[in-house]
Amino acid sequence: MRIAIASDHAAVDLKAELREYLIQLGHEVADLGPETADRVDYPDYGYLLASVVADGTAERGVALCGSGIGISIAVNRNPACRAALVSEPLSAALAREHNDANVIAMGARLTGPDMAKACLDAFLSTSFGGGRHGPRVDKLSNPPA
Question: Looking at 27, 98, 119, 133, which residue is catalytic?
Fold first, then answer.
């Protein structure tokens, strides 16, 4: 699977660990930055991640910041993206099954590397359930005027 990963300065270390984990699992990973822990603005990286998921360059995205909240808000500004902020595997699986989430967001200050890997495993191994969830998900990308 083609996966893009991005963070802010607070999550650079977690991003590096998750990037290597995804590569070990056999995924093609695009690290969108940043490369160092120098201060950056999470919206810039959230918007960049959203753009590569929206245009199909990446099939899934991993968005990381200190809490996961800010970068998930930035990603969700793109109507083609459905970013779910998760902190444990059940939420990650339900985000895929019920919401067809295409981006997982996590907070590096709140979620340790082992739990983040477990969340990734659940997110990547769960399929969208469709059915009654399909029309609801369609509304997420097509809000009423």
Answer: 98
Cα separation, 86 vs 138, whole angstroms: 21
pLDDT in tens, 5-64: 999 999 999 999 999 999 999 999 999 999 999 999 999 999 999 999 999 999 999 999
Alpha carbon separation from 54 to 43, 83, 93 (Å, rounded): 16, 12, 21
* pLDDT at position 130 over 90: no
Q: List the catalytic residue out of 65, 81, 119, 133.
A: 65
Tell me, yes or no, if 98 is annotated catalytic: yes
Distance CA 88, CA 130 (A): 22
Contact 96, 128 (CB under 8 A): yes
Local structure of residue 1 (DSSP, 8 states):
-
Q: Is 65 a catalytic residue?
A: yes
